[in-house]
């Protein structure tokens, strides 16, 4: 099921569940990434945004500037977000990104989901290559502590796409940051099975569409 990719406006963000926009930069207008599901309206008189729940312990180290895609630099008009349904009934969205920028694109998608009202505990982020910096940081304290956070399901969780212990969440974001096509081919169907409402895949559109077409 080939998709018409959406090139998002990617801005700098700090990895991990407590990501916030870089100081002095104006956040772009969010795209309709969040997909299906109710969006709680803020109570009357409440500020437009509120602080997100933070992850205990030190934050993951910064990965540096986020690469800006050519479409954003040229100011060309962006096509509307295109979604399709998976076998499980979840919506599927594709965010084009090179392997080296897939984690940054996934972080941007998580920011938009949280800004649009998704609870942190509803989101699972999977990587097909190197671990997300947050996952590497938390694993440095031991697997018991790391998986306890997964089981608590009260914050965004980051894991390797091949980890069998991760369970279903309403939203799954896949960063296709690996160069192994076979790993990606195994990861995407597994991610589809874990996505209750929305699956977002960040990576090379040609490779991802090839995998999705083979599994259609």
Could you characterize the architecture of this molecule?
The protein is of the alpha/beta class and 216 residues long. The protein is built from six helices and six strands, in the order αββαβααββαβα. It has helices at 70-74, 102-115, 133-139, 143-152, 181-194, 205-214, and strands spanning 84-85, 91-96, 123-127, 157-160, 169-175, 195-203. It has a six-stranded mixed beta sheet. A hairpin with a 5-residue loop joins strand 1 (84-85) and strand 2. Helix 5 (181-194) crosses helix 6 (205-214). The longest helix has 14 residues, at 102-115.
Instruction: Give the structural class.
Output: alpha/beta
Largest sheet: 6 strands, mixed
Rounded Rg: 16 Å
Q: How many extended strands?
A: 6
What does the overall shape look like?
Answer: globular
Mean pLDDT: 74
Q: Treating each run of at least 4 consecutive H or I residues as one helix, how many helices?
A: 6
Amino- and carboxy-terminal Cα gap: 6 Å
Order of helices and strands: HEEHEHHEEHEH
Secondary structure elements and pairings:
Blueprint: H1 70-74, E1 84-85, E2 91-96, H2 102-115, E3 123-127, H3 133-139, H4 143-152, E4 157-160, E5 169-175, H5 181-194, E6 195-203, H6 205-214
Helix pairs in contact: 5-6
